[in-house]
Amino acid sequence: MDFELPAKLVDYLAELDEFIEREIKPLEQTDDNIRFFDHRREDARTDWEKGGIPTREWEELLGKARRLADEAGHFRYPFPTEYGGRNGTNLDMAVIREHLARKGLGLHCDLQNEHAVVGNNVALMLMLEYGTEEQKAEWVDDIAAGNKFFSFGITEPAHGSDATHMETSAVRDGDHWIINGEKTWNTGVHAASADLIFARTSGNPGDARGITAFLVPMDAPGVKIEEYLWTFNMPTDHARVSVTNVRVPDGAIFGGEGRGLGVVQHFFNENRIRQAASSLGAAEYCIDESIEYAKTRKPFGKPLAANQAIQFQLVELKTQCEMLRTLIQKTAWYMDRDGAFSQSERVSMCNYWSNRLCCEAADRAMQIHGGLGYSRYKAFEHIYRHHRRYRITEGAEEIQMRRVAGYMFDFMPQRAPKGV
Question: How far is Cα 129 from Cα 263, in angstroms, rounded to an integer?
């Protein structure tokens, strides 16, 4: 058993670091762009007069960084070479996302809106896997370049974790469908070209089959953004959207009629393992900063690092990071070997524990840094507020634990091979 990372991946991390220092860091420091990352970040990023959505200047800066990354051959890394990528694996992406997040806040990686110079871009993965030829022709090039994307309309105001009881419905009308319902926490709809609306087209509430995904243009008659939901970490791009007698053709179906839940589960597994890696990296950043601060801060004449009360907190967090990294990379490796659905149990383990660990690491970093840690002059409060979200939005940690229990006690139809 070999735990060494592939030499090709290690070399790529060095290449990526060089690109960040050469192209991204100078842009971050130009024209007071640092205001988006220093103590002014929340105010600089938020258009308080337009429902709290991201400011135009903030999103334009992210766009510049994406274009630089795309021109340098980094942004599309996980995708096939025919789409400008480097055939990156799940293991590659787990390692890369941990690596980027561990660097702390910056234009190279800002997880508040899933921005990174190596794009996660799960929408492209889904389009390549489930899109029709017509949909691919319309979407692939723009999604790959980061110029166009669709939002996800899964959650409903009265139905969160249990998507199978959704009230949104679609009824066939000749070669078209009429969709009615309401979705909430639709991320990015202020700039999205379409919303991937999940609606029941057959079956009964609670049935896994009978849910269909529709690519609904945001400018379609009957689509309305009702409100943007202000959050713990601003700005917000999470909206409540209503669809009233929205008419779309058969060609809007994404992933097959009645098979929308499979699209959702594929999205969850691919995204959750990468998000877990990002939370791990952010936790390590908090620990690294706390270790250095404890070495140099000398209240009462001796460094904080000399106190076991400080040492033991960081030892426990560091130990958990080491164990979690092994599980994340093992899970990603098995996903590459056996497919995205093969490791659902372990993906949930990785995700709920990494998000919990990140919040704990940020909280401990605040405590060790004292008043400075509580201030916005350090990144810990931002990391805590952002990653606290993932203990809910990636599937509440209780749902993740319930999912693991389902495999453990044979309530679920699929599970990872025993003894592996």
Answer: 9
Retrieve residue 121's tokens: 């871009």
Residue 70 falls inside a structural domain = yes
Q: Is 234 left (phi over 0), alpha (psi -120 to 50) or beta?
A: beta
The pTM for the full model equals 0.93
Instruction: Flag whether pLDDT at 418 surpasses 70.
Output: no
> Per the structure, how many domains does the chain have?
3
Both structure tokens of 130? 């489930």
d(CA 277, CA 290): 20
400 domain residue, yes or no: yes
Each residue's pLDDT tens digit, 120-145: 888 888 999 999 999 999 999 999 88
Tokens of 209: 């089959």
Question: Do both 402 and 294 map to the same domain?
Answer: yes
Chain centroid offset of residue 346 CA: 17
The rounded Cα 208 to chain-centroid distance in angstroms is 24
> ∠ at Cα 277 (361, 111), nearest 5°?
80
Q: Which residues span the domain enclosing 16?
A: 7-128
Can you say whether residue 213 is alpha, beta or left, with left for phi > 0 and alpha for psi between -120 and 50 degrees?
A: beta
